[in-house]
Amino acid sequence: MRRPGHRSGPVRRGCRRRPRRPPSDARATVYDPASRAGRRAAVAERGAGELTSAAGGPRDEIEWQFDAPDPDAVERWLATYRTGAPGGLDISPARRALLSDRYLDTEEELLRRAGYGLRVRRTLTGGAPSLEATLKSLGGGTAPVRRVEFTEPLDAEEGERGLDDGAPSLGRAAGPVGARLRAVTGGRPLRVILDVDTERTTRALRSGGAELAEIAIDRSTLAVPAGPRRRLDRIEVELAVGSAPGAAQGFVHALTDACSLMPSRSSKLEAGLGPSGGASGGVPAGRRRAEGRATRRWPPAIRRRASMGEAAAVALRVPLSALASSESVAREGSDPEGVHQMRVATRRLQAVLSLYAPALEPAAGALRGELRWLRRELGDVRDLDTHLERVERHQAAAAAGADRAALAPLADLLRRRRDDARRERLLPALDGERYLGLLSGIASLAEERSGRPRPEAATRASAALRPALQRRGRAFVKALRRARRSGGADDRHRARIRAKQLRYALECSGSLYGRSGRRAIEALRPLQELLGAERDALLAARSLTSLAAGPEGGELPEPTLRAMNDHAAGESQRARELLAELPRASARAARRWRRLRRRRLSAHGGS
Question: What is the value of pTM for the model shown?
Fold first, then answer.
């Protein structure tokens, strides 16, 4: 009699499931230094808008925004609240100002793509008008809304005269706004995308004489160029610098309950441009098509009976969308993830074009070459980003402040090199027609309707992909064996490349090979990352040694050179520690690959 849930079939001896062991501390930290989450946390720690070539730091704007159907009722409530002054809070008398805001962007919407809105504000409070430019991050999230903004004053006469002819004075500005504009737009002219005229009434919310927040009642009219004007009334409560959100939370709750206010779902810029986000015909067709089917799912969801043509189109869309959407972050330059994700997307696109080559148009071969070109143009910036991150981590881990200060000149040198590489290679590549042609060509392949599809496009993908996957698997196993025998760094690098090629090929096949395919990918990923971390440590040690011995090293102070030698020794030690994890990771990946090949890729395997 069988027990409930018992599976019938032959008993396999020696296959008893071993209990899963929790990872040790050493294993848990092997991949953390290069982890994506670690990089994002570091960026958040130092400020989302950092740009080393610009002077001046960002300011965090934290505010609550509400739609105000009846701003007069809010005025009356504030007068009552001020009279009672409950909770030890006090509200100052009202001040009034006229604001004239002009929002600008390039024809290609490069600022929006970089996640910023550019505003030039003219303020009139009774005296001479003032003019300032503000670059503010888009998006919000849950209340209170948090944004990063950069502000710099402008010459009132020159600024207003230049707004209608491409705002050249903004591009020449020497402060943080001008520096970021030059980095993102490449000197392209700006155009007006929205005008906002506002009557603003402000009051200060104070506690014990210290200002907690500013309360603003805005009665605005919004107009896009050659479009109708419309009304927008808002209430904003913006925290003063240094104030915690909890200090004003009680007041905000009382305000919303008494006046029945609803949180705003968009900024003034987003409300004025509407659902389209201000998309215009100036956006190049290739980039617009590349962003058209935005999706983040990877590996892609491919149905089991999909044809080669259908599977190729689905697999192309995901990295193509990632490539186009990461471009803005790479242009802005504050987050290394932008360049990194663009390079990852090029590798995934190359993998798709290679794996599905029999079913694609002949033009796909040329696009693979263009992807290699783009990755080379991004490579210098990426290498310097990686090197700088390692130096900054070493600085953070240094026990003494003197040790951290000794590496500061090296970090400054790497930042200058990175900024030069961005200006000389990355930005010209992204601004050129060659890049737009690449996006357009891949978008055409992903639409499944261009050209004459080959007969192979109609064959079932799960069967047609087996030979190509088996070839990549054999190359991976061969490279892994050679690396084990020789113990050489170059052979380990080749094994990493083969592991990456096999992993990307399996990911491009989506869910065609079920659980066995997913488990093989899960084993290949940590092996690839382990080999990559070991090689990065070796290259960092070599780079530090050659830099110290080169002409630029002669200009660095002696404490910095000593710290570089210590850092190089630490990187070499780190590489040796990582090698201790290699046998286990490589054995696991090889075992998972053999299981996938036996169960799903052999002649009698599942479809």
Answer: 0.68
